[in-house]
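We emphasize that the prediction below concerns an isolated chain of 88 residues; any contacts that depend on oligomerization or on bound cofactors are therefore not represented. The input was used exactly as deposited, without trimming of termini.
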Amino acid sequence: MFISYSNGVTELILTGCATDFCVDATLKSALTKDYSIIVVADGHTTADRPMIPARQVIQYFNWLWSEMTPTQGMIKVESCHGILGTYV
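Result of the prediction step, given as a token string:
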């Protein structure tokens, strides 16, 4: 998927699979391109890892992302219900 500021896109709503790999990498890549990002807190998933259950991985990354300070744009972690209340 290619998204560009030249297309007028400045904000991304992020969901996905493999919270600790694909979703995290996508978020960090988007930050380097100065997008504002809304992560759907209950809209990404992963599998249990050898030392930590999936639910704990998800909780950790939701916390980590909510505490990040981007140089441009912003990161917001919000539930699907909260997002739908804002955008619908």
